[in-house]
Specification:
The protein is mainly beta and 96 residues long. The protein has one domain. The chain has no helices and 7 strands. Strands 1, 2, 3 and 4 form a 4-stranded antiparallel β-sheet that branches. A 3-stranded antiparallel β-sheet has the order 5-6-7, with no helix packed on it. Strand 2 and strand 3 form a beta hairpin.
Protein backbone atom coordinates (compact mmCIF):
# COMPACT_ATOMS: atom_id res chain seq x y z
CA UNK A 1 0.00 0.00 0.00
CA UNK A 2 1.32 3.42 -0.95
CA UNK A 3 -0.08 6.57 0.60
CA UNK A 4 0.45 10.08 -0.77
CA UNK A 5 -0.52 12.95 1.54
CA UNK A 6 0.09 16.60 2.32
CA UNK A 7 1.69 17.88 5.51
CA UNK A 8 0.14 20.91 7.18
CA UNK A 9 1.43 23.45 9.66
CA UNK A 10 -0.37 26.04 11.74
CA UNK A 11 1.81 28.87 12.98
CA UNK A 12 0.70 30.21 16.34
CA UNK A 13 -2.25 32.50 15.74
CA UNK A 14 -2.27 31.71 12.01
CA UNK A 15 -4.23 29.54 9.62
CA UNK A 16 -3.44 25.95 8.65
CA UNK A 17 -1.36 25.69 5.46
CA UNK A 18 -0.40 22.58 3.52
CA UNK A 19 3.33 22.92 2.86
CA UNK A 20 4.65 19.57 1.57
CA UNK A 21 3.68 16.43 -0.32
CA UNK A 22 4.89 13.17 1.23
CA UNK A 23 4.79 9.42 0.60
CA UNK A 24 4.64 6.40 2.94
CA UNK A 25 4.28 2.68 2.28
CA UNK A 26 3.10 -0.36 4.21
CA UNK A 27 3.28 -4.05 3.32
CA UNK A 28 -0.25 -4.70 4.63
CA UNK A 29 -1.79 -1.21 4.61
CA UNK A 30 -2.49 -1.48 8.34
CA UNK A 31 0.81 -0.91 10.12
CA UNK A 32 4.55 -0.81 9.78
CA UNK A 33 4.42 2.40 7.76
CA UNK A 34 7.74 3.51 6.29
CA UNK A 35 7.91 7.22 5.50
CA UNK A 36 10.24 8.67 2.90
CA UNK A 37 13.07 10.71 4.40
CA UNK A 38 12.22 13.86 2.49
CA UNK A 39 9.14 15.39 0.85
CA UNK A 40 8.20 14.70 -2.76
CA UNK A 41 7.69 18.44 -3.27
CA UNK A 42 7.42 21.55 -1.07
CA UNK A 43 5.37 24.71 -1.49
CA UNK A 44 8.52 26.68 -2.35
CA UNK A 45 9.34 24.44 -5.34
CA UNK A 46 7.17 26.42 -7.79
CA UNK A 47 6.09 30.08 -7.90
CA UNK A 48 2.42 29.06 -8.23
CA UNK A 49 2.57 26.93 -5.01
CA UNK A 50 4.21 29.64 -2.90
CA UNK A 51 1.38 29.62 -0.32
CA UNK A 52 0.24 25.98 -0.41
CA UNK A 53 0.87 22.66 -2.14
CA UNK A 54 -1.82 20.06 -1.39
CA UNK A 55 -4.27 17.34 -2.35
CA UNK A 56 -2.05 14.71 -3.98
CA UNK A 57 -3.89 12.12 -6.05
CA UNK A 58 -2.01 9.13 -7.47
CA UNK A 59 -3.08 7.29 -10.62
CA UNK A 60 -1.30 4.18 -11.91
CA UNK A 61 -1.52 4.23 -15.71
CA UNK A 62 0.10 1.01 -16.93
CA UNK A 63 3.66 1.31 -15.61
CA UNK A 64 3.49 5.09 -15.18
CA UNK A 65 2.61 6.57 -11.82
CA UNK A 66 0.95 9.98 -12.23
CA UNK A 67 0.72 12.20 -9.18
CA UNK A 68 -1.64 15.16 -9.57
CA UNK A 69 -1.62 17.92 -6.95
CA UNK A 70 -3.02 21.40 -6.33
CA UNK A 71 -1.45 24.62 -5.15
CA UNK A 72 -1.85 28.35 -4.92
CA UNK A 73 0.10 31.52 -4.38
CA UNK A 74 -2.85 33.66 -3.34
CA UNK A 75 -1.91 36.68 -1.31
CA UNK A 76 1.80 36.42 -2.12
CA UNK A 77 3.35 39.06 -4.33
CA UNK A 78 5.08 37.18 -7.16
CA UNK A 79 4.26 39.52 -10.00
CA UNK A 80 1.97 37.60 -12.35
CA UNK A 81 1.80 34.65 -9.95
CA UNK A 82 -1.25 35.04 -7.75
CA UNK A 83 -3.18 32.01 -8.80
CA UNK A 84 -4.37 28.44 -8.34
CA UNK A 85 -2.87 25.57 -10.28
CA UNK A 86 -2.80 21.82 -10.84
CA UNK A 87 0.53 20.07 -11.18
CA UNK A 88 1.53 16.66 -12.49
CA UNK A 89 4.56 14.54 -11.60
CA UNK A 90 5.22 11.23 -13.38
CA UNK A 91 7.41 8.24 -12.60
CA UNK A 92 8.04 5.23 -14.85
CA UNK A 93 7.74 2.05 -12.77
CA UNK A 94 8.62 -0.26 -15.69
CA UNK A 95 11.99 -1.16 -14.21
CA UNK A 96 13.93 -0.68 -17.46
Amino acid sequence: MHLFFDVAHQPEGGEWLQLRLHHARSADGMGGWVHDGSPIRSCDDYPWTAREIRSPHALLDGTTLRLYFAGDSLGIDHGAFNQFGIGLLTCDLGGN
